[in-house]
Amino acid sequence: MKKVFITGASSGIGKALALAYAKHNWCVGISARRSDMLEEVSTICRESGGEIFTYQLDVQDPERCKSVAKQFINDAQGIDCVIANAGIGGDDGLYTGSSKDINNILNTNILGVTNSLMPFIPTMKDQKNGTLVCISSVASYVPLPFHGGYSSSKIAIRMIFDSWRPTLQRHNIKTVSICPGFIDTPIVKGPARKFPMRSAEDAAFKFIKIIRKGKKTYVYPWYYKFLILLVRIVPESFYNIVIRKMFHRPIT
Ligand SMILES: NC(=O)c1ccc[n+]([C@@H]2O[C@H](COP(=O)([O-])OP(=O)(O)OC[C@H]3O[C@@H](n4cnc5c(N)ncnc54)[C@H](OP(=O)(O)O)[C@@H]3O)[C@@H](O)[C@H]2O)c1
């Protein structure tokens, strides 16, 4: 039985991934801060036939991440794949006079990813096998006003993976960066909900296939590739005028 550990599995994409892996009969480790919601996910996963272990975990806590990783490897008797999915969105708090909001985003979305993945790497290196996955974002290619923390956190984790890849490849460890556009989950709030969205279930179905193939970087859905290309080729001054009009009020 293959083993996957997922952070941020109490809702949205993480929950959908947990359910999809359980349906494929994987042993699934699910983690998040809200243990009541994790228990609900665990019950549904068990009904689908998977073996499930749940862990209350704040990814901002590196020591807890280490002990949970050790516990899961022990409970599941190994590790094949780790998905660093936990993340938060939100406004930078640009006019608040405080770095509290933006730093919370950076801490969760960057350090939370390194905290949760790195404890698994020595085991994967020893066994010469494994897959590390990070959930980046289309926002890592498209700077959004008032969301510098979010966009930059998603670039950072993609870049960390690009940096690790050639080294980890030598140990047969794959590194997969997934860059979703809007997916219908609680993280998408306010005016952003007007954009077309895919369901978390459709996304998870696709992501599992991509992770199995070990694709390096994956933009989903496919049409966001055109947006990324457009942002690259239009002059910055033009992009700034358009994006300022689109986000004349901060989205929260
Ligand atoms: N939905 C989209 O449109 C979209 C697009 C691009 C990228 N993404 C990325 O996809 C990932 C999943 O987001 P989602 O859309 O599924 O949103 P979501 O439904 O809000 O899920 C976020 C998950 O992260 C967990 N989390 C947040 N802070 C945490 C912390 N400090 N420690 C542990 N877990 C924490 C939450 O659980 P608890 O609150 O219970 O801890 C929750 O399970 C995020 O990294 C997000 O940036 C989403």
Model description:
The chain is α/β, with parallel strands linked by helices. The strands form two sheets. Strands 3-2-1-4-5-6-9 form a seven-stranded parallel beta sheet, with helices on both faces. It is globular. The chain has nine helices and nine strands. The chain starts with a strand and ends in a 6-residue tail after the last helix. It has one domain: Rossmann fold (3-Layer(aba) Sandwich).
Strand content: 15-25%
CA-based gyration radius: 18 Å
Looking at the structure, the CATH topology is Rossmann fold
Instruction: Sum up the overall morphology in one term.
Output: globular
Q: Which strand order does the major sheet show? A: 3-2-1-4-5-6-9
Distance between the termini: 41 Å
The figure for the number of domains is 1
CATH architecture, by name, is 3-Layer(aba) Sandwich
Judged by helices, strands and strand pairing, the structural class is alpha/beta
Instruction: Report the strand count.
Output: 9
Mean pLDDT: 95
Low-pLDDT residue spans: none
List keywords for this structure.
252 residues; alpha/beta; Rossmann fold; 9 strands; binds NADP nicotinamide-adenine-dinucleotide phosphate
Short description:
The chain contains nine helices and nine strands. It has a seven-stranded parallel beta sheet with strand order 3-2-1-4-5-6-9, with helices on both faces. A two-stranded parallel ribbon has the order 7-8. It has helices spanning 12-23, 35-47, 62-76, 100-117, 121-127, 148-169, 200-213, 224-233, 236-246, and strands at residues 3-7, 27-32, 51-56, 81-84, 130-135, 173-180, 183-184, 198-199, 217-220.
